[in-house]
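Slide 14.
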Amino acid sequence: YENKYPPDAVYEETGPHARLWRTYLDESQMHDFEMVEYSRDSVDVLLVFAGLFSAVVTAFVAQTSQALQMPSDTILTSLVYELVNIQRASHNGTSVDDVPFSALTPASTEPQSSSIVWVNGLWFVSLSLSLTTALLSVLVKQWFHQYVSMPSGTPRDRSLIRQYRFSGLQKWHVPMIVGLLPVLMHGAVAVFFCGLIVYLLPL
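Slide 15: predicted structure.
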């Protein structure tokens, strides 16, 4: 840096245009470029994958969530069968009280199988993790975009602003959040396959 920037005047070693700040900006730009470019590429891949994966899980959930509610035709069939038994008992002269009651009523809402509850629960968790990954990826991209946008001003002002933003990234644990994004995405995929196994076992 001594060859790149001329020496500072006496008592101007920490002035607004001192080479101390210019050297700091050069070093910090190299550090920030490596950090942001690596994280940005990773976040871009995760964002695309999270969007596609969320669409796939949504298609599965849209089909299986209908089974969480008792089908109306099943309830109607059970009630009609009970009514036929009552009429048959009346015709044969037997007591109507001996006719077994239908286990299903118009107020019945429980699904036919408990496995469908597990399947939908796992897939909803997977969808939530995937959407959370997509949301955090967008936020991280916005943080990095704001971080690398350097305002105008003297080298000292820009150095202080850069250090303030870098301290903010560390305070909000942005590098840790970037590292957790693949973990969330892998968890979403794993939970989805667990639900798929539960869904396919009875078949």
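Speaker note: The mean pLDDT is 84.
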